[in-house]
Amino acid sequence: MPRVVRVSFRQAGRLYQFDAGDLDLSPGDRVVVETSRGRELGTVRTAPEGTPDGEAAAGLKRIARKATERDLRKAEANIAREQQAMELAARQIAEHGLPMKLIAAEKVLEGNYIVLHFTAENRVDFRALVRDLARALRSRVELHQVGVRDEAKLLGGIGPCGRALCCATFMTEFDPVGIKMAKEQDLSLSPQKISGACGRLMCCLNFEYDFYREQKRGLPKLGSRVETDRGPGKLEEVNIFTNRATVSLEGGLRVEVPLAMISGGAVPPRAPGEGEAGEPEEPEATKKET
Asked: Which class is domain 217-261?
């Protein structure tokens, strides 16, 4: 039975499964692993877990060793090589007149292999650029086009909330985000207010979406006609935290009443994912932001 650990190659990077073998590993340990690009330096993110052979990831590779001081020094030296590659690539891109923006460079720990990440509006024919870079750097060069979300993840930065970007600090995957999530949370639909540094919908819209959806289940929709102890009116606002609603009565008077006083209003909150009669509810599909 393989002892599986998950390893990432950069902060908040995607997690990959590896066979820990007999190594004594803990989260935070630096390790050297074999990849399709050569040996790379990674960080263990999870403790080893026993996995039945039939459930192990296909082609699961073993961790070569724990990183040594020599490995760590080599990784530090590679940073200078990556900077050199970035500067040379930027000049070459300008000389070739290619419509692309260089984002980051990665050099494998062992071996002459450099990956350059870039963004571009459309597909770019960079074959001549790759040949020139490989000759100048005396390395195998790969150019990898990424989207705007990945660009923000690679570069990092500060979000509209004033904190470091979620994607660059702890998110290992991008979950689908849709405008419905902003509507459910009664947020402004102004693109300037619900867009992140990448220009797409903020990833954090997904964090509290399930909570809002559960708390609002069974409540009348905004704008609908409701009955209160003070007469009929139109539902204007709902505050799920204070459990109160604002209703515009006939004649223009606005009143605030408990949700329980609205006809057809508040219902006992259900546990997340629980449908009628306590049965599991099918997850609601959300439109993926592209």
From this structure: mainly beta
